[in-house]
Amino acid sequence: MPPIRILLLALLTASAAPAEGRRLTVVGINDTHGALMAAPAPRWLMSKAGPEVGGADWLGGYLSAIRQEAKEKGGAVLVLDGGDDFQGSLISNQFQGRSVTEVYNALGVGAQALGNHEFDFGVEVLKERVAQAKYPLLAANVFFKGTRRRPGWLRPSVLLDVEGIRVGIVGLATVSTPITTNPVNVADLEFVEGGPAAAEEADALRAKGATVVLICAHAGPRPPEQEIQRVAEAVQGKVDAIVSGHHHVAIGPPPLFVGKIPIVQSGAKLQAFSVIDLALDGEGRVLGAEVNEGALPKPGGPQAILHSWNGEPARWRGRPVQPDPRVTAILRKYDDQVRALREKPVGETLVDLWKDREGDLLGSLAVDALRSGAAGGLPARFALQNAGGLRVEEIPKGPITYGQIFDLYPFDNEQFVLSLPAEAVRNALEAVLRAGKGPMRVSGLRYVIDWDRFGAGGNPRKAPDGAIVVKMTDAESGQVLCETKACAAGGCESACAKGPYAVAVTDFLANGGDGLRLPAAAPRKTSGALARDMIVAFVREHRPLGAEAPGHREERRWMQVGSAQRGHAER
Hints:
By secondary structure, this protein is an alpha+beta fold. It folds into two domains: 19-336, Purple Acid Phosphatase, chain A, domain 2 (4-Layer Sandwich); 344-561, 5'-nucleotidase,  domain 2. It is 27% helix and 27% strand. The strands form ten sheets. Strands 1, 4, 5, 6, 15, 16 and 17 form a seven-stranded mixed beta sheet that branches. Strand 31 (480-488) and strand 32 (491-496) form a beta hairpin.
């Protein structure tokens, strides 16, 4: 065959199958919640990882190794964040998230999704963080109510040049934001379904020349909503990968793909990150994706931010990892300002305090404190505390510090005491279950959730009042306060005490957080006491917590029969 014909054939073959070009490495983090410092390793990981994991400076060390690898191979690196960054620790809350944003600037974060807890300090503070950040805060599905006009401080998407690769990034907020931050903070905003908004933005970014389009979304994979999977289904053929957040889950192994789109999420509190390696053709378009290749402790799952492994120094794909000294200096600057308060002793426990285990001692402790009237609060007959408001799983046996209580309850929620009939209390317990949340922690009450008796588990959102919580009693007297006798299509027949009863809640719940429904006309009082301060005072008053610790050696304060066809999303 003549040489010219051979050359032409080679050119035609190359055009039919684009040659592989560079690699874009997407690093995903999410739900930092102010956890900038290293933390004790989970018990299941401690034998191999050593005593501590996480820390923003250690993440910076991993990013240095990842960027060095990319540089050597002619690739590029982009760091995306799935939202909920500021709320949750003294080192963040005391500075209203300024410390987190300064650290993210130093880490070289490329873009951040708008999380529901970004609103916790109010919109004016959020605007300050947006102005401080060297990266954009994104959400394409947030509008002023009744309009298609977006807030001026919020961008729907951004087009970046990442080492010569034109990358479009679309941001999304969870549609549940109005009930997962204090509702008054977002009263003028509407959070619409993310998929159609993301698809529209993706098309616009492609039209502007993006060869890669990514989503960073504060939306999670849990059933039944599977919000991020619905987004992925809506953007098939338009988007190449998704970094998600909100549910605090570690996705994988195996990796999660919806169609050809990989979705990652890395747990919470900056203890791990995810890696999506995108292979690109010569034009910068995506040919394929590898997710969390070679990650520890489980390949295919998020990479733990390890300080060591099996007694050896931490490494990333053969490269040594050390804390980033620039980030360490930032952490030291802020930590010096809060260390004394964080380490201040407030009490002691002679038993491990767990959430959701062994009597749910943490839940009982928090809700009993809310009812007690400690720290200048108002005493009440009963109290209700939402499960998602309690942010740690354990306070181990030993001294209790202010920092541990702050980590348990970082929100500046005030105690309110409402005057309610028993039926309204029962309906409140059911409302959070209909919204897909975990069972309410209670003080002074016991209640029974029965998903099977009246068929409520098949469709909890449509279940009539009384079909889910079928019995509620006064824990001290044993009096039945509310009991469901029968249910039909038109509603349930219940026998409930008239009351009224003084019921302590937080302002988050009183304002409709977690989907709670309380009568608008119900009398309410407040002393201005913060729920967290009440817990601190209660722990001091009952030191040391021992066999008499709230909830210790008692049955769980609620009983659950059967199950609902949906998961709990407490975050």
